[in-house]
Design a protein that fits this description.
This protein is an all-beta fold. The protein has a domain of 218 residues: Lipopolysaccharide (LPS) transport protein A like domain (lipopolysaccharide transport protein A fold, Sandwich). It contains two helices and 47 strands. It has a 30-stranded antiparallel sheet that branches. A six-stranded antiparallel barrel has the order 5-6-9-10-8-7. It has a two-stranded antiparallel sheet with strand order 34-35.
């Protein structure tokens, strides 16, 4: 017969559970790839889900009250309060002293941890002091588990002591690694626990001894050493980093990392993060190497190599109207190769330029006023420095009045340059527009867009100009005005029909689009180039109103553009195919040129531009682009990508072509033809192979090659990666290309740390050509 009693207290076991959880859980759960790794892990219940005042139910085979004031529970004792459950073969409660003793098959769970023991538990309900012999524990929602020979917990000091404790994230009977410590102490109000005589075991082999170690027991910050990293490469040799984290204040912290590079020397890295007030956050980051051993035989042998980066984002009001942003990166003025040599984790690098930008303004739904100061640091010795924005003010506004839309864009920019014999200017530009929807229906739209461009320049032109600018002083005027009206009419139609292929239903659309653009010609060779270059042609740029990117050249146009897009949707609405084709026809050849020395174009037709995307069955994808010179029947540019992507199996093959005659800015020695691909393929549930290969067919050389193999288990992984890529020698011999090789071996103990060499990333793609998905289908 079983007896049920209401009101038996669970205080002693709940205190023990909380201490065990704080002592031995990680601050972050580790992701796992295999469902079987979690088959032994119970689901986690949020702490506090059980009301401490909820009724408590006790059941047992027998209940006896002894004459000495003891209550004895025998035979399958079960105590339940919400998610908390406690079981034992025998429980003894001393009513006077409130001492508790439990024996045999002890099991406690509260939704966050399960503790088991075949031995003895002793405690006191008043003091809540508890001891548990030969305990086994399993965290809920986390693979962490282990054993403790003896657990002592004292409520008064809020401490727990574990003797002979172990910890691992491996499934039962698969303990590839574990930590064993002779003594562990945890204070629940502290962030870190302490362990003495801790040993890391791999299988049955001890591999590392820690006389003393601190480990996190809460998701909070505290100063201390972080895990080191080890890398090996042909460029640096052995590369070791040992970061130290400094918790300065609740809203400030820093990480200082000494870095030893066998072939270069010892450097320092510092990252400082701050939250000065609500809505603002930022990071200061720096790297410093006093002298580089690899430059010992050069003129830079005694020069320091360094990098500085500042990032800051701010919202100055609750609504987010007033905002500011800083992104500033700089290296030593002579150090063109710093980013290539050290691969810092910060900085915006575009076409060998590091950006330095300060911007802010007022942002509203209908209008915006912004200001920016911007500069660039060139990391290529023969290139001219871009113009600085010092500063630039921009005002944009938009208002809809029924069928009419009013828009206004303007800017005032001062362009400066630190170079010698370079012109400078202040530019004011205003662009009012009126848009009227002549037709606005689901199957078609027709919009008229009328406006004007007004630009005024005040140019400071020196007596001599750098020849690389492409101008002579006599061509440029100190003061220049440009006023151009503009008319654009844009329309499109959408037709669709139900059809079927291979017995399956589909919906096909045909979407013709046309645009007429008129801008009169005005001579502009007397205006310098400050932020303007040719615009890359693709399907969407043909329907733009600009031929150049930037405001220093506004091309004349008497142009008609036509194109169409066709899409195919399956019965679930998934876009399976998209084809787009467009071309522009100029009734008069454009006369505006980028440089005065450029030969005026006599071409009236743009490239015939094609784009296509195919989703064959959700696994096979094709993307292609092409620009054809229909006058000379030559392919100007093109690329095609084939991809297979299904359930972790990925393979991508791509080819791209550029004709050097059409892309002089690319400075190609010949036509560009490159072929390559990447893959990531599971060999079985635990082995994965990745690779990448890219080759320049014209130069007959490899650009980037990679091969890697990884073994994954529930609690450990090992990966081996070999990569070789081409790298410019920007400092010593800029015309030379170096070959960089890295061999990396990394051993990971999941839930603990990663030890080894090489990059920890094991993903498709290579250093120079990372994997990306280029498809434009709306799925």
């Amino acid at each position: 017969m079983r007896t049920r009693i209401i009101g038996f207290p669970l205080l002693f076991v709940s205190s023990l559970a909380q201490a065990q959880t704080d002592a031995l859980t990680n601050d972050q759960d580790s992701p796992f790839s295999f469902s079987r790794c979690f088959s032994h892990v119970p689901l986690r219940v949020a702490p506090g889900a059980t009301d401490p005042n909820a009724p408590i139910t006790v059941s047992a085979e027998a209940l006896n009250a002894a004459r000495d004031g003891k209550i004895l529970y025998r035979g399958d004792v079960q105590v339940v309060q919400g998610h908390r459950q406690f079981g034992a073969d025998y429980v003894e409660l001393e009513q006077q002293s409130r001492d508790v003793r439990a024996e045999g098959n002890i099991r406690f769970t509260d939704g966050t941890i399960t503790v088991e023991s075949d031995r003895t538990l002793t405690g006191n309900l008043n003091t809540k002091d508890t001891e548990l012999d030969q305990a086994r524990y399993q965290l809920h929602g986390d693979p962490g588990r282990g054993q403790a020979r003896l657990v002592r917990m004292t409520e008064d000091t809020n401490k727990v002591d574990l003797s002979g404790a172990s910890y691992t994230t491996c499934p039962p009977n698969e303990e590839a690694w574990q930590l064993r410590a002779s003594s562990v102490r945890v204070e629940q109000d502290e962030v870190f626990g302490e362990a003495w005589n801790a040993v890391l075991w791999l299988g049955e082999m001890p591999v590392f001894y820690f006389p003393y170690i601190k480990f996190p027991v809460k998701d909070e910050r505290q100063s201390g050493l972080l895990y080191p990293s080890f890398d090996i490469s042909s460029e640096h040799g052995t590369d070791i980093r040992l970061p130290y984290y400094w918790n300065i204040a609740p809203n400030y912290d820093a990480t200082l990392t000494p870095r030893y590079m066998e072939k270069r020397g010892t450097a320092a890295q510092l990252e400082f993060r701050y939250l000065p007030m609500a809505g603002q956050r930022g990071t200061l980051y720096g790297e410093y190497l006093d002298s580089d051993n690899k430059l010992g035989d050069t003129e830079w042998r005694d020069r320091a190599r360094w990098l500085f980066n500042w990032r800051h984002n701010a919202r100055f009001d609750a609504e987010g109207h007033w905002r500011g942003r800083v992104d500033y990166t700089k290296v030593a003025g002579w150090d063109y190769a710093y980013v290539d040599d050290f691969s810092p984790p910060v900085g915006i690098l575009v076409e060998d330029q590091l950006m330095q930008s300060f911007q802010g303004g007022y942002y509203d739904r209908r209008w915006q006023l912004t200001a920016e100061m911007r500069d660039y640091q060139i990391l290529k010795p023969e290139r001219l420095s871009p113009f600085q924005l010092a500063p630039s003010l921009a005002l944009t506004s938009y208002q809809r009045l029924g069928d009419v839309e009013l828009a206004f864009d303007s800017e005032l920019t001062q362009f400066t340059n630190d170079g010698q014999n370079i012109y400078e200017a202040t530019r004011f530009h205003a662009e009012p527009r009126l848009l009227y929807a002549l037709v606005d229906r689901p199957g078609g739209q027709l919009t008229a867009d009328a406006g004007a461009y007004y630009t005024h320049y005040e140019q400071d032109v020196p007596n001599q100009l750098d020849a690389r600018l492409g101008f002579n002083p006599a061509q440029l005027e100190g003061s220049a005005d440009r006023l151009l009206p503009r008319l654009r009419v844009n329309g499109n139609l959408v037709f669709d029909r139900e059809t079927s292929w291979f017995g399956l239903p589909f919906t096909q659309t045909l979407e013709p689009q046309f645009q007429y653009l008129y801008v009169p010609f005005k001579e502009q060779d007397h205006i310098g180039l400050y932020d303007t270059t040719d615009m890359r042609q693709d399907y969407y740029s043909l329907f733009s109103d600009r031929r150049f990117a930037g405001l220093d050249r506004i091309s004349d146009a008497n142009q008609l553009t036509g194109g169409f897009t066709s899409r195919i949707y399956d019965r679930e609405g998934i876009e399976r195919l998209r084809l787009a084709l467009a071309q522009s026809y100029n009734f008069v050849s454009p006369r505006v040129r980028l440089f005065p020395t450029d030969t005026p174009s006599d071409t009236r037709r743009s490239f015939l531009t094609f784009e296509g995307d195919l989703n064959l069955d959700g696994n096979w994808f094709v993307h292609t682009e092409a620009q054809q010179d229909t006058r000379n029947s030559r392919l100007a540019a093109g690329n095609v990508t084939l991809e297979y992507n299904r359930q972790g199996r990925l393979a991508q093959l791509g080819f791209r072509h550029l004709n050097q005659d059409y892309y002089p800015d690319a400075r190609l020695a010949g036509d560009l033809n490159q072929l390559g691909g990447t893959f990531s393929w599971p060999l079985d549930p635990q082995w994965r192979l990745i690779g990448g290969y890219y080759r320049d067919i014209e130069l007959n050389r490899n650009i980037d090659s990679l091969i890697g193999l990884r073994y994954d288990s529930c609690c450990w992984a090992v990966s081996l990666v070999w990569e070789q890529w081409q790298k410019e020698d920007k400092l010593i011999n800029p015309t030379n290309t170096l070959q960089e090789t890295t061999i990396g071996l990394r051993f990971e103990l999941k839930g603990l740390s990663s030890l080894g060499t090489g990059s920890s990333e094991f993903v498709p793609g290579t250093k120079l050509l990372p994997y990306y998905r280029p498809f434009n289908l709306n799925n």
